[in-house]
Design a protein that fits this description.
The chain is mainly beta. It folds into 2 domains: 159 residues, 3 Solenoid (UDP N-Acetylglucosamine Acyltransferase, domain 1), CATH 2.160.10.10; 41 residues, no CATH class. It is built from 1 helix and 26 strands. The strands form 4 sheets. A 9-stranded mixed beta sheet has the order 1-4-7-10-13-16-19-21-22, with no helix packed on it. A 7-stranded parallel beta sheet has the order 2-5-8-11-14-17-20, with no helix packed on it. Strands 3-6-9-12-15-18 form a 6-stranded parallel beta sheet, with no helix packed on it. β24 and β25 form a beta hairpin. The longest helix has 6 residues. GO terms for molecular function: transferase activity. InterPro entries: Hexapep (IPR001451), Trans_hexapeptide_repeat (IPR050179), Trimer_LpxA-like_sf (IPR011004).
Length: 204
């Protein structure tokens, strides 16, 4: 089954859009972008040149995903969130000439499997948002986010651990945590700076 692309959307002929993906009104997908199957690209969203978007992602209205961002499968990007690509932005060079594409090197944000970026959050490249992590609405992410972390604030700081359901984990004794929705259990590692599913911890 082909993608569903609204007539008002601007999808470059060199972009790839996967089966069953919906691209809504006024969205723009630039050249060489690769959007996977079963995605939803919201109204007015922007996907930059060469951006990679995995399967089953939701990029909500007016979110801006600048190249060379990489979004793995199952990523959520909330309304008006921004994934930047220029650590030291300037419109002009030191001599006053207008910058061109050759005058800077873009750096990207990587969002790992299942992670969520809240509404109006800003991720300052280059950062990595870990697997199944959650960035709260309005947060400004200036450093890497661990797997399963919930971060919030300006700059963003870890507040809790979350599971695959997005719900905060509950303490389960002796450095263990449990998801109240799925029942999945997690163990702390790295001196409490990370958590991993119990099965993964036992295997490692």
């Amino acid at each position: 089954m082909d993608a569903r692309i609204d007539a008002s959307a601007d999808v470059d002929a060199r972009a790839a859009v996967g089966d069953r993906t919906t691209v809504w009104h006024l969205a723009q997908i630039r050249e060489d972008a690769d959007v996977g199957a079963d995605c939803v690209i919201g109204r007015g969203a922007y996907i930059g040149p060469g951006v990679r978007v995995g399967a089953a992602c939701k990029i909500q209205n007016y979110a801006l995903v600048y190249e060379p961002a990489v979004l793995e499968d199952g990523v959520f990007v909330g309304p008006a969130a921004v994934l930047t690509n220029d650590l030291y932005p300037r419109a002009v060079n030191p001599d006053g000439t207008l910058k061109s594409a050759d005058d800077w090197r873009p750096v990207g944000v990587t969002v790992r499997e299942g992670a969520s970026i809240g509404a109006r959050a800003v991720c300052i490249a280059p950062v990595v948002v870990g697997r199944w992590a959650t960035v709260a609405a309005g947060a400004v992410v200036t450093g890497d986010v661990p797997d399963y972390a919930l971060v919030a604030g300006v700059p963003a700081r870890r507040l809790r651990w979350v599971g695959r359901a997005g719900v905060p984990l509950e303490a389960d004794g002796d450095g263990a945590w449990r998801c109240p929705v799925t029942g999945e259990r997690f163990a702390e590692t790295d001196g409490g700076q990370a958590v991993v599913p119990v099965a993964a911890a036992e295997a490692g």
